[in-house]
Amino acid sequence: MSKQKIQLSDHFDYSRLLRFVLPCIGTMLFTSIYGVVDGLCVSNFVGKTAFAAVNLIMPVPMLVGSAGFMLGTGGSAIVGITLGEGDREKADRYFSLFVWTSVLVGCLLAALGFLAVKPAAALLGAQGEMLDYAVRYGRILMLSLPTFILQNMFQSFFVTAEKPHLGFAFTVAAGLTNMVLDVVLVGSLHWGVEGAAIATFLSQVVGGIIPLFYFLDPKSHSSIHLGPTLWSGRVLGSACINGSSELMTNLSMSLVNILYNYQLLRFAGENGVAAYGVIMYAAFLFVAVFVGYAVGSAPIVSYHYGARNHAELNSIYTKSLRLLGTVAALMTALSMVIIPHVARIFVGYDPELLALTSHAFRVYALCFFPKGFNIFGSSFFTALGDGVTSTLISFLRTLLLQPIALLLLPALWGIEGVWLAVTAAEAGALCVTVLMFIAKDKVFHYRKASC
Q: Is 204 helix (H, G, I), strand (E, B) or coil?
């Protein structure tokens, strides 16, 4: 029984739910790990200034590339609901529309982003050597935007296609490509920040271009396939609205990271930006578990919502909250133990920077518990096609509360307020998430009773 293929139409007990979402969690974890290797190589082989420059400019290509997250999550929810309704031909047509649109949008954004890197880096406060590093690294990443967008989209669509294990395999292949090239290009050939950017670019080719051929193959065992499509502004608009919470999350994450770097340059200079870079790389590993679970469970939610199976939908929702509560508590406690070791790997060569990073990470890590519920809450409502509620949660936790906290708390407690800002914002957003879940719970129990 355990070796049977898990389908979206199945009943999901804890075992089946975990088996289905674990490849997605693994995908996100592995993506985070090879991002960490990028930072490790730049920090240890090129130096602290280059490491700070990379982390200063990184939010800019992430900001420009957020369209991929929007069309991936919003589009996969529409495709999942359509599959649940039993119309596979329409699901293929929608899937193709989202992918081909993303390719065109990615090429346009790459051209615009390439031109914007230098003025953006200067506006963020980079000068001299740091500005030079930031421009050299950022321009290559901008050119890779089409592959970056596709890679992010396919992480969602592999799950909708009932092939989460294949999505994980592509991520592992992309990650190994990045890590090997990082060591060769940055560590052995000493290509500096350009080597790290090229390694990332080529890994995205593996994760974003090769899956195209799989979905184009009509003989593949995927539940969805790429092919001809018809332009539909209404469907694209629905996907954009439905995925607006993920767009909001990624846009605001980039904007908030920019604001973080600006504040840290004021309070701690280059060391502050470098310390925040270490925190972000390490935090990616913890947050990847929450994001992986949200991405993995979303197509299940979309399918059963489309099939009007409210009893199963309520069961998945209840099980998810219990699992997330347990994992969030364990991860928050675990982070406190491993923080000094992670910081030492990145910046052990600088005792002052190491001390700053270790302390800052312990304060920042308090945000992991509320963050898990907020990430799942936003994804859950996106999967239901309720982009408004999903966007509200994302808007509160990122674009509204975090900037407010980043501006107010440092005025009260200095740099300590910078590290506490995310926890304060996530805690405030959690109150709204809980209220949304309570309202949803009443609706589901009513519909379950009606059935």
A: helix
Q: Quick check: is 1 in a domain?
A: no
Instruction: Match 């979206």 to its residue by tokens.
Output: 8
pLDDT at 131: 92
Give residue 117's domain range. 14-450
- Report helix, strand or coil for 4: coil
What's the whole-number mean pLDDT along residues 162-167? Answer: 81
For 362, residues 6+ apart whose C-beta sits below 8 A from its C-beta are 336, 339
If one counts every other C-beta atom within 10 angstroms of the C-beta of residue 71, the result is 28
Cα 244 to Cα 240: distance, rounded to the nearest angstrom: 6
Average pLDDT, the chain: 85
Whether residue 126 is predicted with pLDDT greater than 90 in this model: the reply is no
Give the list of residues 6+ apart from residue 238 with CB closer than 8 angstroms, or none.
Answer: 74, 78
Nearest CA among 71, 23, 92 for reference residue 296: 23
pTM of the model: 0.70
The pLDDT tens digits for 131-159 are 999 999 999 999 998 998 888 888 778 87
Residue 427's pLDDT is 92
Two tokens, residue 366: 């308090």
Q: Is there a domain that residue 250 lies in?
A: yes
Q: What is the mean pLDDT of residues 92-115?
A: 88
- CA proximity to 208, closest of 103, 80, 60: 103
- Cβ neighbours of 337 (radius 10 Å): 8
Question: What's the confidence (pLDDT) of residue 68?
Answer: 65
318 in a structural domain? yes
Residue 316 lies in a domain: yes
Phi-psi domain of 128 (left: phi exceeds 0; alpha: psi -120 through 50; beta: other): left
Beta strands of 303-442 (E only): which ranges? none
CA distance 14 to 314: 13
Residue 61's identity, in one-letter code, is P
- Number of structural domains found in the chain: 1
Rounded Cα–Cα distance for residues 389 and 393 (Å): 6
